[in-house]
Amino acid sequence: MPATDTLSSLASSVLIVVDVQYDFLPGGALAVANGDQIIPTINRLAALFPHTIATQDWHPSGHISFASTHAGHQPFDVIELPYGPQVLWPEHCVQESHGAALSGQLHLPRTELVIRKGYHRQIDSYSAFMEADRRTPTGLAGYLRERGFTDCYVCGLATDFCVAWTALDARQAGFGVCVVEDACKGIDMNGSVAKAWADMAAAGVRRIHSCEIC
Ligand code: VGL
Ligand code: ZN
């Protein structure tokens, strides 16, 4: 059962729209297949939730997650960094580039915060809560607590990276968490979408369909 099954209880919930940026949409530098298809569903959710926040991947040039930063490496190679394994990506979501902009198809009239992440050159951040070194917080947990939110509904791109890491860290921070399956799309490398759903289920993240709320 979803954490909130009545409209009134959405008052203490926040919709978190993850990384719906041009670089993750068809034609973008790190396009998620059919990533644009979830936008109407996200817009329907956003019309219902009284509180929305959005996240924005926001990398400096020469970011550690870019394959181009590491001589001899190709996109989708995995390298070992001081904080653990890192997938290397095509250059994407470079600060102030068009690819880093949120899609103009999004209608998120009640967005109260846009939280940027991945701006430290030496640390990636899939999660909107905690960077990949697992010790550098973004401040989002404190913001949500101070605002009195108890539950997070997570949607966006990509299911197996930024959505999953954000949902897992929201649980870790003590929030009730639902991921809206049909409002997400995955990249899927070597079964990473299935693994993400298994990890989220094990952590008590609820997997719901948008029809359960709108
Ligand atoms: C993402 C890979 C690299 C995401 C961000 O938004 O899921 N994936 N940077
Ligand atoms: Zn990124």
TrEMBL record:
It comes from the Bacteria. Residues 13-205 form the Isochorismatase-like domain. Keywords: Hydrolase, Metal-binding, Pyridine nucleotide biosynthesis. It is an enzyme of class 3 (hydrolase). One of its GO terms (biological process) is pyridine nucleotide biosynthetic process. Pathway: Cofactor biosynthesis; nicotinate biosynthesis; nicotinate from nicotinamide: step 1/1. Signal peptide: none annotated. Pfam families: Isochorismatase. Its EC number is 3.5.1.19. One of its GO terms (molecular function) is metal ion binding. Belongs to the isochorismatase family. This is Nicotinamidase. It comes from Lampropedia aestuarii.
